[in-house]
Amino acid sequence: MGKLLLLDIDGTLLNSQKELPASAFEALQQARVNGHELAIATGRAPFMFPDLRKKLNIETFISFNGQYIVRDNEVIHTEALDPEMLEKVFRFAEKRNHPLVFMNGKKMVSSIDYHPDIDESLKSLKFPHPDTELDFHLDNDIYQSLVFCTKEEEAQYHENFKDFQFVRWHRVSCDILPKGGSKASGIEKLIASTGHAIENTIAFGDGLNDLQMMQTAGFSVAMDNGHRDTKRVASHITAHVDEDGLAKAFAHLGLI
């Protein structure tokens, strides 16, 4: 059995222009020919990357940082945020003028008609400001939420909501996840389905939400454009994503 390659999207598969480099595409196809299995591991929602999955012919993925896992186009695990606790976060954030975005498996909605922090952070992913829908988080399973605040303001959420994790991915935005939820826990659930041993997994990433995945996988590769904490725990640091970093890592590891 080949390796299970776990691939982050932003800053790993996609470059600074949110494009898939030709070198990465070629490396991924060759790795598959060589007997390795490809899986995406991302903080994004499934509806945020269907075109990429189609282009790469990948239908196995860990999304929402571990809260929604699909194996060969079949959902094998979901874990929604506790709705009562999420409502408490919403009320807490509302008093501090911190908007939220809520996501289920099909779409995302905002708690406010417009906010510049939402606009700024989602534009970095090339997504527009979402629409507002009253009580969406009360009427749907929410697999991930975003709270928009500065790094300094984030501490109060950690202090007041210890059953949730708050993981920063942008200057003004944090993912809200269940305590213990992560790409790392997603790996463990996925390999139970694929049959891979943990030592035969390789994680590729760049962000803080990849840190636990790096520590859990059998081997880990950080992009040179990655966060310093992520690079610190990685087994290997490859070149910048804009400098064919993913393809270079595949070559270095003998995957191609």
TrEMBL record:
PROSITE patterns: COF_1, COF_2. The keyword Hydrolase applies. It comes from the Bacteria. GO terms for molecular function: hydrolase activity. Keywords: Hydrolase. SUPFAM superfamilies: HAD-like. It holds the Pfam family Hydrolase_3. Coiled coil: none annotated. The keyword Nucleus does not apply. This is Cof-type HAD-IIB family hydrolase. It comes from Metaplanococcus flavidus.
